[in-house]
Amino acid sequence: MKLQKTSALLTAAAITFSAGLTASAENTNIYPDVNRGDWFYPYVKNVSEQGLMTGYKNGDFGVTDNLTRGQFATVLWRIEGAQSVGYDGRYPDVEEGIFYAAAAKWAGDNNIITGYENGYFGGEDEITREQVATILSRYAAITGKTVTKGNIYDFPDGGQVADFAKDGVADAVGSGWITGDNGCINPKGTVSRAVSATLISRYTSDFIPPVFESMPEQFVFSSGAGGWQTELILADDGTFTGEYYDSDMGDTGTRYPNGTVYICNFSGSFTQPEQVNDYTYKMNLESLQIERTPEETEYRDGVRYIYSEPYGLDNADEFYIYTPGAPVSDLPYTFVLWTYALADMQNAETLPCYGIYNEGGGAGFIGMQ
């Protein structure tokens, strides 16, 4: 079996290959537009679990929708415990009963969001990145949060930050609430709800997303030619289940005229990953349980089933996680060979997906999104 798989490696290498904030969430599974493996998944999960951001009436989180001033005021009001505030009708454009009315009054009372010169609050207006930074800076000052002043001119568009926002943006970049948008501040740019979840997560808890939550659930190690395959289903806590499957329909006998199948169902867990560099994490195989004894055989429906070891997890101890964007030139040659079976890597300079590499077994699993 091992010789068959080793030759398959060479074969694989040759293959070219405006609603309000109303619906709450205990976890992101109820958001149809948020899935494991999305870059924003752990941040949306974090703010949802804190009750700071919620979904729409239709069940979506609205990840690509731009955040409004009313929504952002509501998020900050919730951070403060959603204090009971009687709306006094101070803003001509904020009707009593609208979801952000109490938040708008609270934000105005505390000089966090002051409204426009014409007296309007602008609750339905899309908020900009420099406005978010300024508001968070004001909120930090009022609540006594420690901030670090950054240098906006370290960014190529730092000179485009409005005068009123320079101090706030400096606080935001220095404290890590805003890390840049393709290398720029993009001060006049809008803020999607996914990005807002990221900013709020960083602001409220210096949140570092768990590595496993950022990864897709399904990883596959395969010949890529319709043959054998090992599948891992990875949970948020690093536990996993999986199946190895191979078949040889030409291997027949009196009791198995329909061929032979090699199979292994297994489960286990990885240790928590440790970061090696910007695109690599290291972890160890903590436990591995195999459902049936290897070489055990049974016959069903004219097929011989031979229970096997979980191919791809053999000789397993140290594993490496590679994140999307990892330079292909920096990845192990054996791992890259396996990626050609399942990912479009023919002319790629960077890894287009997550990968898991069993260094001892020389096996590369590809994240399926």
Overview of this structure, please?
α2 crosses α7 (193-205) and α3 (69-79) packs across α4 (101-109). The radius of gyration is 26 Å and the shape is elongated. The chain has 369 residues and is an alpha+beta fold. A hairpin with a 4-residue loop joins β2 (229-234) and β3. The chain has an 8-stranded antiparallel β-barrel. The chain is 25% helix and 19% strand. The chain folds into 2 domains: 28-211, no CATH class; 212-368.
Could you estimate the helical fraction of the residues in percent? Answer: 10-25%
Q: From the helix content, strand content and strand pairing, which structural class follows?
A: alpha+beta
Number of strands: 11
Rg, nearest Å = 26 Å
Number of DSSP helical runs: 9
Residue fraction in strands: 15-25%
Written as H for each helix and E for each strand, in order along the chain, the element string is HHHHHHHHEEEEEEEEEHEE
